[in-house]
Amino acid sequence: MSALSVDQIVSLTEVLVILMGIGIIWAVYYGSDRAELPGDAQIPEPDEVDDSVPDTRGRTL
Distance between CA atoms of 15 and 18, rounded to whole angstroms? Predict the structure, then answer.
């Protein structure tokens, strides 16, 4: 038999699911204010030479 009653197991599960949801939301939104959004990229000068290795840090497909 379990040391916890059925009501305690249900309550513990509810608390853990809520905490897990808060953790997932924090993980998704933490640092999202620094994300490069469409239209925020700087337009390079036409006479500027292209980079030989593009900077892809922080970018996703």
Answer: 5
pLDDT tens-digit readout, 29-54? 887 777 767 776 777 788 887 767 77
Give the pLDDT of residue 57: 76
- How many Cα atoms are found within 13 Å in the side-chain-facing hemisphere of 40? 7
DSSP-assigned states of every residue in 41-55: SPPPPTTSPPPSS--
Which backbone phi and psi does 3 adopt, to 5 degrees?
-75, -15
Distance CA 51, CA 39 (A): 20
What pTM value is reported for the model? 0.52
CB distance 31 to 39 below 8 Å: no
